[in-house]
Amino acid sequence: MGSDNLEQCISLLEGELTPALVERVVRGLLQQRTDGASGVGAVTLVMHLAGDFTQRYADIMWIYQRLRPALLAAVEQNPSLQFIEGG
pTM of the entire structure? Predict the structure, then answer.
């Protein structure tokens, strides 16, 4: 997959980051945790959302930086979530 295709796919994902989607994904990730922690780091969330791209591209931070503003906006609109920077 070329960089243009990656850019297009991440752009589509960026547009899908609604508060409801983010909350649903965070709740699902929390249910999968076995360590009893009560949060999901932003990088972990982006890696989950980007799925296959995180395995194909070493630069997950580019994907994270690209999605961060939309993710932050979605989290800020949901009072039950709090943005946690990092993994």
Answer: 0.80
